[in-house]
Design a protein that fits this description.
The chain is mainly alpha-helical. The chain contains eleven helices and no strands. Helix 5 packs across helix 6 and helix 8 runs antiparallel to helix 9. The longest helix has about 35 residues. The radius of gyration is 22 Å and the shape is globular.
Length: about 325
């Protein structure tokens, strides 16, 4: 089994576990990002209160709306990302070693090279998986509504049929055709800088930690808790920088308001940015920021920790099998 495949499968496994743990926060955060009602700003509820409101008004299930396609998307995204990341990373390392032999560089992959590797992996991932995330966004932002168009507690036989994956797919297709599944792809491609910054920071922090250990002549390896903390710190830095693009992407992928003021309808990325600046101010680009930081940092930390443990476990099993197969 190749190192790229091991990393790809481990990344998918880590991503699924992180998604399961943090999904309710992600659902609330998506709703915060796509909320365009200025009246709600005056009576702004906190994350925990909003989660409680969703449970009271729509049931526990709505906190996990879109979980199935989200898990598929997470597995695909993390698997594709880590697979191509490892391939591009291996090529970058080979280039660095070749340059060292030629008398240029120290043989290690620099910060710029790490950024480029992460960016290329992210672009491949976005182009392949964007349709999944459009469907997930629709399911997360879908609310059970009464005939008066207000969200109310669901009682007995008045509960409408569930809004499933097929309903979301048909809604997107009816609204914009096949290209509707690539809504928000431009800001998402620009947002490739998020995992790029994240992995660049993570690898830089991890490299510095290992160098300090080697300088102190310590044979102690990097622990799961240290990987958890490094992953959390790296994700925090990346999220703060790229959050406005995430809000724009969510606005574009959510169901467009019909029959209302045009300020709530977006024709594209630039139109969304200009309308948000005009009608909501720059504050609109940071709606739900605190929720996203908690969700992203926790998810990234769990992802890195689980991935590293899975990679180490897989390599140990492969070495064990190889040792058994050797003739005595």
């Amino acid at each position: 089994m190749s190192d790229a495949l091991i990393n790809g499968l481990a990344g998918a496994g880590g991503g699924i576990i992180a998604q399961l743990i943090t999904y309710p926060l992600q659902t609330v955060n998506t709703r915060q990002q796509t909320d365009r009602d200025p009246k709600k700003e005056k009576k702004k509820a906190g994350t925990v209160e909003q989660m409680y409101q969703v449970v009271q008004q729509e049931g526990w299930g709505r906190l996990y709306g879109g979980l199935a396609p989200s898990l598929v998307g997470t597995a695909c995204s993390q698997g594709v990302y880590y697979y191509f990341y490892q391939i591009f990373r291996s090529k970058a390392e080979a280039t660095a070693l070749r340059r060292k032999k030629e008398g240029a560089g120290d043989g290690s992959v620099g910060m710029l090279s790490s950024l480029m590797v992460a960016a290329m992996s992210g672009c491949v991932n976005v182009l392949l998986t964007n349709p999944i995330w459009v469907v997930v966004t629709r399911m997360q932002t879908h609310t059970k509504k009464s005939p008066s168009n207000k969200v109310e507690p669901i009682v007995g036989g008045n509960e409408p049929p569930p809004f499933g994956t097929s309903n979301a797919v048909l809604e997107v297709f009816d609204e914009a055709g096949v290209w509707g599944f690539w809504k928000g792809v431009f800001p998402t491609l620009v947002m490739v800088s998020n995992p790029s910054i994240q992995f660049m920071l993570y690898e830089t922090l991890l490299k510095n930690l290992k160098q300090r250990r080697s300088l102190s002549n310590s044979n102690k390896g990097v622990t799961a808790l240290e990987v958890f903390l490094l992953g959390a710190l790296a994700k925090l830095g990346a999220t703060v920088v790229t959050y406005p693009l995430l809000v724009v992407k969510s606005r574009l992928q959510a169901k467009q308001a019909i029959g209302v003021d045009k300020k709530h309808q977006y024709k594209g990325t630039l139109d969304a940015i200009l309308k948000m600046i005009r009608y909501e101010g720059f504050h609109g680009f940071y709606k739900g920021m605190s929720t996203k930081i908690v969700q992203s940092v926790l998810a990234a930390a769990v992802l890195f920790m689980v991935k590293e443990e899975l990679v180490n476990g897989a390599r140990w099993l492969l070495l064990k099998e190889a040792a058994k197969s050797k003739p005595s």
